[in-house]
Sequence to fold (330 residues):
Amino acid sequence: MEQTVLTPKISVIIPCHNHGEFIREAIGSVLASAFEDYEIIIVNDGSTDPFTSAVFRELEHDFQDHRKVHILHQARSGLPEARNNGIRRSRGEYILPLDADNRVKPQFLSKASEILNNDPGVGVVYAFAELFGQREGIWEFSEFDPKRMLLYNLVEACSVYRRAVWEQHPYDSEMRIGYEDWDFWIAAMESGWAFHLIKEPLFVYQVREGSMVSVCNIPENRRALIRNICNKHRKSYMEHLAYVISEKDVDLLHANQRAERIFRETDAHICRLEAILREREDELNRICHSRVWQMFLRCHDIMDRTMPLASRRRRLAKMIFDAVSLYFHR
Fold:
């Protein structure tokens, strides 16, 4: 008799390339979820460092008989294609892409699933994030605005969405250096899907050096990525061209104003420091030319010539000299 294979409600896709030090915490956060109707697809995207390779051997052993955890190995293809391959392997009605260095909170899957179950027009559910690593605090996102989505990515990659969204527009495998999620959300928006924001931190985002965000902020990379997004979604950008140009111009104006304000404040601070230095310089000159200071210098010179460096007398004389010097500098 053929055994029925149950379809999980949510498939959590965790790509990993050389992030062996983080991957167990990402997996553990899903396993600790209050929501139980899920599967985890871990995609080893051609990891090469020995530590991550050893971690994957351990994971293969630990989860070899686990009905919810599956491991997929592939040649290095980049984050977008790693997600695509993980989703192709998955069976869930809803998808949650989770980066290997991040974690989800116990209530995220259940709350996102409930929203998607109750409103068929909602395609994507996203939430606030709790930051850790080089920055701490709560990362608050704004309510979804289709026009502002053309200016900036308003939705984090770690969001729960319907499989139908991905089936219409898989991740662009050419966008390996970043912004693949921004491109994905714009495509979902253009297809008419609604976005729902949960205003509480339901996933944990690690801020660290060397992440894909820092690579995207390299000017030549950012220029190429923005041009690619504009070309792919030309119709949307042309439709809102006046809005995009005016908003970007205002943003540039505000940035210049902030830079000018910082420059003025820095210049004023430097002037205050220079005044303090000039004031102290006069005071130091008076001390250095005083008869008392000259006498102490001569005493110190005599001490250097008459007392060996390692002697008790030298240490005692230095203590007395330092105490007297401190008294005159008060």
Summary: Strands lie at 10-16, 38-45, 69-74, 94-97, 103-104, 122-133, 137-139, 160-162, 194-207. Residues 240-287 form one domain.
